[in-house]
Design goal:
The termini are close together. A four-stranded mixed beta sheet has the order 2-15-17-16. It has twelve helices and 23 strands. Helix content is 29%, strand content 25%. The longest helix is centred in the middle third of the chain and has 14 residues. A hairpin with a 2-residue loop joins β8 and β9.
């Protein structure tokens, strides 16, 4: 289905959904703790449901209540005959691959064809070095064998999800392990996020330096009642909406968060945006901003919405660190450039890792392609509110991956949205 979004100011208050990054991690930790844990403040996006269903297939008992999840952890790492269905969730796939090696038999993981186009080389190399089975057949992955403790050497320019996946597993093994990362280390904030959630569930990771982690052996996950804080990755869309086109208050976000995407606050403050701290979050007010070049190396998910924000700049802006956008749910670099051009904004890739954006008046001549990517859809939905006429964006169902309530929350802020059939009628 497609939607038509009409230009107009946004005003009001929105409660940000819980952090998807934290929910994934907390549910996995709870599933590894013998006994009952409760996780509060939940949102059942497609990615989170993928993690829940895979953990249930691995033996966890998970019950979804109105505002929380009850998790009874895996009791027996014996033989599992069910296929793990990860759908399109890279977090689910990369977090659970190491944990699958705790079981005594071969494990089959299945996902979308697009998911299996995303890199898994890091794990494949590790499995090959330990003479374990790692075989990709179409949109299936066959795993056979048990990962061993020891020293793991990983390149830092890969996704931090591989490091996090190992951090979930290694504390359970019979001997200590070390993870050493070859600089540069990107998205290190997500590793810190994993370590913090592990700590909440009783697991100790010793950080010897920014690039070396010592993992003691024979640790035990403990049950925990865990409250999931609001998601800065999603709050960024409303922060952008407020500062370029209205007055929007985002509740349920805290600056003390370890989420890397809280960087949106620093960036907007550097741009001299009007931001007011409120008792439960932040209020973002339309501002005449003074913008400068940005580096998204450690917060790549902010790339699409920042590309839309800087269209309001009075001068060309360079976004650095865009190389990693190629390997997301879509090739986000291509998606950003294509859709900005449809909004009348020229772009230039001045290196493989730097994108230059040339701001001008927003004039839309074509429908916008979501590329079946939730963050591309949401970013350009925000930009559509300042277009010269209504904008049609294709395939809004992609928001179910992370934020099913996004369009409903936009409407609460006064944005007019028309839902279309595939013919645009």
């Amino acid at each position: 289905m497609n939607v038509k979004i009409y230009p107009g100011k946004a005003h009001g208050l929105v409660s940000c959904p819980p952090s998807k990054s934290l929910l994934h991690r907390a549910i996995i930790c709870a599933a590894l703790a013998k006994g009952k844990s409760k996780i509060y403040n939940i949102s059942l996006s497609d990615d989170i449901m993928a993690t829940i269903n895979c953990l249930k297939a691995l033996g966890a008992k998970i019950l979804i209540e109105n505002n929380h999840i009850v998790v009874n952890g895996i009791e027996d790492f014996g033989e599992i005959r069910k296929i793990l269905l990860t759908k399109e969730s890279a977090s689910t796939l990369r977090f659970l691959i190491p944990l699958c090696t705790l079981f005594k038999n071969k494990i089959v993981i299945e996902g979308s064809s697009d998911l299996f186009k995303r890199p898994l080389d890091v794990y494949e190399d590790i499995f090959n070095k330990q003479n374990l089975g790692f075989k990709k057949i179409g949109n299936r992955l066959l795993l056979d064998g048990n990962l061993q403790s020891g020293e793991y050497l990983l390149h830092g320019n890969i996704s931090s999800q591989f490091v996090s996946g190992l951090l979930f597993l290694l504390p359970l093994l019979e001997a200590p392990s070390t993870i050493k990362i070859i600089p540069p280390l990107v998205s290190k904030g997500y590793i810190d996020l994993t370590i913090d959630v592990l700590k909440a569930f009783g697991i100790t990771i010793m950080k010897r330096s920014e690039t070396e982690f010592y993992i003691p052996a024979l640790q035990i996950y403990k049950t925990k009642d865990y409250f999931c804080e609001g998601d800065f990755s999603q709050a960024a869309f409303f922060a952008a909406l407020g500062t370029i086109n209205g007055d929007v208050e985002c509740q349920n976000i805290v600056r003390e968060s370890l989420q890397p995407d809280k960087k949106i606050l620093d960036i907007l403050e550097d741009f001299h945006a009007q931001i007011i701290k409120t008792p439960s979050g932040y209020r973002f007010i339309e501002s005449k901003m003074t913008m400068a070049d940005i580096d998204i190396t450690n917060c790549p998910d902010l790339g699409p919405i920042l590309a839309c924000i800087v269209t309001k700049s009075s001068k060309p802006i360079v976004i650095k660190g865009v190389g990693r956008l190629v390997y997301k749910e879509s090739n986000r670099l291509v998606a950003i450039c294509d859709n900005l051009q449809k909004f009348g904004i020229e772009t230039e890739l001045i290196s493989s890792d730097e994108l230059k954006i040339y701001p001008s008046d927003i004039k839309v001549e074509e429908d916008i392609n979501s590329y079946n990517d939730h963050r591309i859809f949401m970013a350009f939905a925000v930009l559509a509110t300042i277009a010269d006429k209504p904008v049609t964006i294709k395939n809004y169902e992609c928001i179910n991956k992370s934020y099913p309530e996004f369009l409903r929350d936009l409407e609460k802020l006064g944005v007019r949205i028309e839902y279309l059939n595939e013919k645009g009628d």
